[in-house]
Amino acid sequence: MSSVNLSRVESLFAELDYPISREEAAAEFSDVTVRFADGEGNLGEYVAACSSEEFHNSGELYTDIQNELPVEAVGEPGQSEGDA
């Protein structure tokens, strides 16, 4: 099992051959732990949860996975975009 910082995930995605199915991409990262500022998770599981069935480039995969990451992975702890 390997581990990678969230900031390096996009470079991992760039190493894949595209187009690639969601299932194939998830399998590629099933043994990768992604580290956040406040926690960690399995990268393959986040990819498997993406809504797209297929990705045509690393940017599509990276954009899609942003919606699957936990709140701990984005922004500062306790921050809310909806609060004024």
Automatic annotation (TrEMBL):
InterPro entries membership: DUF5789 (IPR043899)
Name of the protein described by the UniProt record: DUF2795 domain-containing protein
Top-rank taxon: Archaea
